[in-house]
Amino acid sequence: MQIIERNILDYFPSDLELLEKIVAKCHLCDISYQRKHIVFGEGGNNARLIIIAEAPGAREDELGKPFVGRSGELLTKMIENAIGIKREDVYISNIIKCRPPNNRNPLNDEAMACLPYLEKQIEIIKPEIILCLGSISFHYLNNSTLSITKARGNIFDYKGIKLIPSFHPSYLLRNPSAKKKSYRDMLLIKSLLKDTIAQ
Ligand code: URA
Description:
Elements: H1 16-24, E1 42-43, E2 49-53, H2 58-63, H3 70-83, E3 91-94, H4 108-125, E4 129-133, H5 135-142, H6 148-151, E5 156-158, E6 161-166, H7 169-174, H8 179-198
Parallel strand pairs: 2-3, 2-4, 4-6
Antiparallel strand pairs: 1-3, 5-6
The structure holds uracil.
């Protein structure tokens, strides 16, 4: 008998809208029962850049969209003013799709249950660059416990895609002195995107 090895991602549809419908019915972890909306992700389906943060907050849970609050305003400025592309042309999502209670960090079980959805989103979109915002995003996509302070400034690899860690906008709002380094990370992304167009 021939045994065909299949990856869990092969069981998901290769279409973002269909995948979102599956995630909307997901109850693989307890926080799914408390959500108002899933926050699946939004942006260009052919985005060259995917931005991955941690988890939806209260406003995002209300509206079903990522980064709609104050940190969202800052993220939009980082994308549009520093990287120089429109927010709607990048794809923005999170490690987990439901809001953790009281905005606590996602638990490992929650992240591990949710991660295949994000992996499939990345497989469908095929970006050139993944920007990880904050240590939780970096930890799960790079399988690493390096702090964001140590990791940033370097380029990592996720299945052949350049993975760039940087500070979470909420951290930047609390620590404005880190904005200079964050700006440098955004300029690195800008130059990498320009290089691939020039090739
Ligand atoms: N913070 C996150 O990590 N993700 C969001 O979508 C919004 C705020």
